[in-house]
Amino acid sequence: MKLTQQHKNHLYARTSFFTHPKYQSKKEDVKTIVDTIINNQVRQSITIDLPEYNPVPMKKLSKAKRKELKREWKKKVVEINQKWIQQMLEEDKSFIEKMTLFWHGHFACDTSKNPYTTLQLNNILRKHALGNFKDLLLEVSQSAGMINYLHLKQNKKKKPNEDFARELCELFTLGRDVDYTEYDVKEIARAFTGWTISPMGEFMFNEKQHDTGVKTIFGQTGNFKGEDVLKLITDNPNTAKFIATKLYRFFVVDRLDEANIQEIAQVLYKSDYDLTKTMRYLFNAAWFYQAEGKLIKSPIDLLVGMGKTFDLKFRRANLLIKYQKYLGQILFKPPNVAGWSGGRDWIDASRLAFRLRLGSLILNKGSFQIDIGADLDERSENKVSAKFTRFYEEINWLSFAENIKEESIYDVLIRTENPILRAQFKDNEKSTVVKLISTPDYQLT
Fold this sequence. Notes:
two-stranded antiparallel sheet
């Protein structure tokens, strides 16, 4: 299959948030282009300057020390957030980071109050983003962030806690009510007893707290441990189908096609959960190129895509957090263990108005009065004046003009085919650019 320039723009938008045509592969063969994107990726762990972890429980610290520590930890998580966004902007890392973002939503885990668990889990997702799902599942399950978030430390042989067992089946692998029962959940919880973390935040198996009794899970009986359960789950083809469905929603379209999903699932299952092979197949499929302009950009997709288009630096970390807050997707702080629902939920009335104005505000260094959700009611009741947020991003318009030279401004910025809009905006003037990115069509990828 040969790719047109329009096909290439679609592929790079979905894999890499956005890539100017001048930096795209000049080849036409889809396999060659997809291989180039994947093979040129560089996986780089995020690092920040963190003090050596102090294992003293926070509850043992003085009130003043706890307050100071919480404040410092919050700043460090914001720093990790900024570094991750900036890494998404790098062309040789964009696809790895897009996959990491996918897994961040799949294994939704709120680590926003602890930079140590945030960094550990985020780097685990990146490490296995294009590796093997079984390795990813095991390491995420043994991470401090997941163990804390789903109460595995409280899962003990005399009093099993079912939180992790339930979400493992329902949200991470098999899907809701697929090939498991309430009894299976109870038995799975028993298998994971003893999984905990050391005072330094490393995974530890506490044999004294592990239930060594015989368990019956998915109709099989044995002295199962947590690792055995993960194997039983991934042996079930429905796990591959569930992951394939999530990948399809994220990278293709949220209107599901059973035949297409089954194709992805078969590749994933038959390759023993090889994620690189699976993604190669997805991006080589003809139906992938029929989905142009049919996904609503997530807030992160919108921000990073705009950042790569206009070479934004996002140097003000607190302002970056405001962008995410007002758009409805703060990294490391999912709304719940199911993650962000996405799709049309990204564009409620208040947030759509902000999204449509965001490009103009950033490119023109404007200011915006935020009136979203409960905050507005709270300000009204307490008679608090609304605050204005000002944008400070620097745009190198000469560089942008060079990047789009000889390209249709419409095709560079818009993924939908809208003849009226295309005819209306032909020139590459700054005013045209601002108007185009303020259209509903720009919200689609």
